[in-house]
Design goal:
Elements lengths: L1 H26 L1 H16 L2 H12 L3 H25 L3 H9 L4 H35 L8 H10 L2 H38 L1
Helix pairs in contact: 1-2, 1-4, 1-6, 2-4, 3-4, 4-6, 6-7, 6-8, 7-8
């Protein structure tokens, strides 16, 4: 439950931060040129390195662990949101302009629905990366499935490590299926709306 809680909160934070950043990157090439190197750094720095400043600034516990998970899991969502909105067909946007749609209507009614497959792929990647980071975050006192895995590594308990590793895999599969189904339902709902 602790692992489930931290992954859920981290995913919600990443969605709240990542999608607006992705949208602003899609809107402006200048913003994209500024944020892309930051995302590159976030993705290439080893995950252990995130823990050092988090622990220095916030000490040991849930909050620095959550922050490290969010930093590690955010880049794919930002990149795929940006990509999804940039891939929206220009002719569709011109048609929306012709019908007199304002900026907000175009974004919420045209661009985001058409970019949803990419955005959901980004959310999926974020969930998987936050699951991977949970084990590493257990080093700084984050409770959950990472703690017994860490204990298994330090004491060479194969069975304990394997069982908790499989539990993390099971969580990953459950999250993956739920997010995919949710994405398909939204897509179905959108297409059925347009059919009428």
């Amino acid at each position: 439950m602790a692992t489930l809680a931290i992954i859920s909160v981290a995913t919600l934070i990443c969605i709240a931060v990542g999608i607006p950043i992705g949208i602003s990157m899609a809107r402006s090439n200048r913003v994209q040129s500024v944020i892309t190197p930051i995302l590159d750094v976030m993705q290439t720095i080893p995950s252990f390195v995130y823990l050092i400043p988090c622990v220095m600034l916030l000490g040991i516990g849930k909050v620095p662990g959550l922050l490290a998970v969010c930093i590690y899991a955010l880049p794919p969502l930002v990149r795929l949101t940006n990509l999804g909105i940039r891939l929206v067909d220009r002719e569709v946007l011109e048609a929306a302009d012709a019908f007199g749609a304002n900026y907000r209507q175009k974004l919420l009614g045209v661009e985001l629905p058409l970019a949803l497959p990419n955005i959901f792929a980004g959310i999926n990647q974020t969930i998987m990366m936050s699951l991977a980071m949970v084990v590493i975050a257990s080093m700084i006192g984050v409770k959950g499935l990472g703690v017994p895995v860490l204990r298994a590594i330090s004491n060479q308990y194969l069975a304990l490590g394997l069982m908790n590793g499989l539990a993390i895999v099971a969580l990953a599969i459950i999250f993956d299926r739920i997010s995919q189904k949710f994405g398909q339902n939204i897509q179905k709902h959108r297409t059925s709306d347009h059919d009428f």
